[in-house]
Amino acid sequence: MYRRALTALQRFTLRLDVGMNRVYPTDWNPLYYTGGLTNLFLFILVLSGIFIFFYYVPSLVGAHASIVYLTEQVPYGGLIRGIHRYSADAFIVAALLHLFRNWFTDRYLFSRDSPWISGMFLLLFGGFAGVTGYIMVWDERGLALLGIFDGLLRSIPAAGTKLAEWLVGAAGVGEGTLPRILLLHVGPASLLYVLLWWHYVRLRHPKIWPPATWVLVSLGLVTLLAALLPVTSGIPATPGARPSTMPLDVFFLLPFWLAGVVPPFLVVLLVAGLFVAGLVIPYINRESPAEMGVRQPGVAQVIDGNCTGCELCYYDCPYNAIIMVPSPYPGLTRAAASRKLLAVVLDSRCIQCGICIGACPFEALELPGMLESDVTRRVEEAVRAAETVPA
Amino acid sequence: MSSASGASAQAWSPKVVGFVCDWAVATGDLTDERGRLTSHPSVVLIRVPCSGFIRPAWLEDALKAGADAVFVVGCPYGDCLNREGNYLMRERVDQLQRRLQRRKVEPERLSMLAHGLHDREAFLGEIAALLERLRQIGPASKGAAPARRAAAAPAEGS
Ligand code: SF4
Ligand code: SF4
Fold first, then answer.
1. What is the pLDDT of residues B74-90, one digit of tens each?
2. What is the rounded distance in angstroms from the CA atom of residue A343 to the CA atom of residue A173?
3. What is the largest CA-CA distance in chain A?
4. B113 CA distance to ligand 1 middle (Å)
5. Angle (CA) A223 A227 A231, round 5°
6. Between the CA of residue B66 and those of B69, B102, B127, B142, what are the distances in Å?
7. For atom 4 of ligand 2, which residue has the closest CA?
8. What is the pLDDT of residues A280-290, one digit of tens each?
9. Closest among A309, A303, A307 to A373, alpha carbons compared
10. Of A1, A15, A23, A234, which residue is the least packed, with the fewest Cβ within 10 Å?
11. What's the whole-model pTM score?
12. Is A337 left (phi over 0), alpha (psi -120 to 50) or beta?
């Protein structure tokens, strides 16, 4: 069932790619750059966030006023606030596209689980930073959100009260609250960069940025949105009062809307369940590569005597699985005799793709399951087969 | 070089060796047990773990062994399962093409294609077009085929 659905979704994703490739040259297909776009929006968020940070006052009376001041008095303040808001939405959309795309095209399996797992944490902390961002505005919605969040945390048995106190402060909503929320906004946002290191550590030349055209288009899009649909500040929060309206942001606040419909603890369970399900996706229903019909030619092996330390394999391995170490002894061939470096394959990182084999001009790398001699034999067989064409 | 062009051109089937990435276009039911395409039996496919696995020297080997052309099939650019394999291979193919051209080997004899898992019609169409072009330029002349292995001149390599 799960597998059949995934196969269908994979077909759909690939069809979408083919369609998109008709519109854009393949090097530009935005669907190939969902990760880069996410990172771009995060970068826009950081820059605009720093600007907003200069004006934000984390106090009960000052918070909303400072946001209004920023929006109405500071030159371009409203625009930058809008950019911050809309690129947050774009960030979540791009991140989800990235997630689904890599899920449906099997790019999370086997040794590629570490980008997947770190991606789940990125999504969790990104979403959390979004929620605290809404609270920081400290309008009626922000206060209501804080209330619901508090309720959600308190519904957790045993640890709930403690968690809620960490969120709003032990004394309840008071002067201590907004500095905490500010920290809980900036902290997770900074943590995203630590997680991104984990996300990228096994990737060589990760596509961190989309092509320049898409950078400009995305930047233009959020700016245009911010100019055409300016972000407005709601009614300032008065603790204790009931909110009159609660505009819903589908990208961040869905669980909060849900909390009004079902018991809070169910919402907590749902969010936690989704997160855990995300974490186990790479490991459930797992067929071995052999069962999936995937060739396993074995971890690449360096033919020590031939390696000249030219570093070409090191640059081309897409998974950072090759490191160059100072050569402990000279190589055996003439080209390798005066080498300074030696290539070493890290078994745990190698996914057996063989790209380093194609990169090495000195025949110093082999895949155990598909040796160079196997390939040359097969080439000869192929030419002979082509000559003996059946009538 | 143009010995085969003419009236009998249609009868001649160029010998072509194709390296196909395991993750690119699915060809399981397109070939016989020796890897020959059923629709164009003079085209023989060799499956490899990734298009980036291919050493340019092997492409030269195939030409040297008597193939009229070789090609590599990777996934669409930007969509390599291993992220970079097809870009790297495209660069290597370009380099080798330039090198071969200096030895008067026509660029048609070496090509890099990109077709996703379900793109078999586009793939077969491109093969048919390739065969047509090869019929026009005729079989590879023995003299023009590279006489030495790439590994002997590594500085030139990719
Ligand atoms: S086969 Fe080579 S290129 Fe591929 S992951 Fe292993 S070391 Fe890297
Ligand atoms: S490409 Fe080959 S010769 Fe160069 S460092 Fe890697 S293994 Fe050694």
1. 988 877 888 788 889 99
2. 59
3. 89
4. 22
5. 100
6. 9, 19, 19, 8
7. A310
8. 888 876 666 66
9. A303
10. A1
11. 0.74
12. alpha
Q: Which CATH number fits domain B12-157: 3.60.21, 2.40.10, 3.40.30, 3.40.50?
A: 3.40.50
Please list, residue by residue across A258-272, b when 16 or more beta carbons sit within 10 angstroms of its beta carbon and e when fewer do. Answer: bbeeeebbebbeebe
Distance A306 CA to ligand 2 centre (A): 8
Is residue B147 pLDDT above 60, yes or no? no
Contact criterion met (CB < 8 Å) for B116 and A14: yes
Q: What is the Cα–Cα distance from B78 to B85, expressed in whole angstroms?
A: 10
Size of interface A-B (CB pairs under 8 A): 151
Q: Write the ipTM.
A: 0.80
Token representation of residue B102:
């200096």
User: Following DSSP, what letter does each residue of B72-113 receive, concatenated?
Assistant: EEEPPTT--TTSSHHHHHHHHHHHHHHHHHHTT--GGGEEEE
Return d(Cα A33, Cα A149) in angstroms, integer: 34
Where do the domains of chain A lie, and which CATH numbers do they carry? 2-283 (1.20.810.10), 290-388 (3.30.70.20)
Across the interface, whether the CB atoms of B67 and A386 are under 8 A apart is answered yes
pLDDT in tens, A127-184: 999 989 989 988 888 888 888 888 888 888 888 888 888 888 877 788 888 999 999 9
Q: Is the CB of A143 under 6 A from ligand 2?
A: no
